[in-house]
Fold:
Amino acid sequence: MTELQIRKQILATALRMNAVGINRGKSGNVSARWVEGFLVTPSGLPYEETRPSDIVFIDAKVRPQGTREPSSEWRFHFDIYRRKSEANAVVHTHSSFATTLACLGMGVPAFHYMIAVAGGNDIRCAPYATFGTQELSDKALAALDGRRACLLAHHGMIAVGASLAAALALAVEVESLAEIYWRALSIGPPATLADVEMDVVLEKFRTYGQPRQAEE
Structure:
């Protein structure tokens, strides 16, 4: 895949996260790993007005390249790629239900087996830190330890994937789980699945889905 194709995919992902309702306006950001660095959406530019050339490249020495300023959250994107070799894309949103829980400092426990989609037996909420700071990145990385998604207190959500499509799909799933959990809490605290059951689910998820077809 060429750099231009990835730039177009990043922009399409940003537009898609707004279209499916897990983000609004100029909030949130999207990135993808590229060569010895990553490409990330620019700061404060409406996605509808963004062009592939506006996507900013940041190299391994944290040097931005391009005509735009990178997203203010470039630090946690940089740190995720540095710490998680399996991560090729990051989607950060301010989705309504995940952010509602995050504003209460709440993560999402194993009230539903699909919590395992994020890589563990819960979805953690990172403690609050000012947006765009190294402190926020450090707290987000701690919450993402052994996970593919986390909430950010008083802020939003991060989802990490092997591709942009995977990261976006995970962000949609986390928001759906946050909504169901929020609705369950309106009736009463839901029961949670035991760690031993979540271990079974996590193991099943390792081989879940369609097998790869052999090339003819």
About this structure: The radius of gyration is 17 Å.
